[in-house]
Write a structure and sequence with these properties.
By secondary structure, the protein is mostly helical. Helix content is 47%, strand content 0%. The chain has one helix and no strands. The longest helix has 30 residues, at 6-35.
């Protein structure tokens, strides 16, 4: 029979929490490095930028 005392449960929970935090910190640092892309600013005064996210399918609501 396995007996788990309250102190042992607390130690296991603390170890799990520390492991999760360490993983999250390492993953966050890795994503920052991979997703950073240098960009340059270009003048767009007097122009309108339109982004169309149509995904190639016709919109059913606009058909009449």
């Amino acid at each position: 029979m396995i007996v788990i005392h309250k102190k042992r449960i607390q130690i296991m929970a603390l170890g799990l929490l520390i492991g999760i935090c360490a993983f999250a910190i390492q993953t966050g640092k890795k994503e920052e490095k991979e997703n950073t892309v240098p960009t340059t600013a270009t003048p767009v005064s007097g122009k309108t930028i339109v982004v169309d996210a149509g995904h190639g399918k016709p919109d059913e609501r606009c058909r009449k």
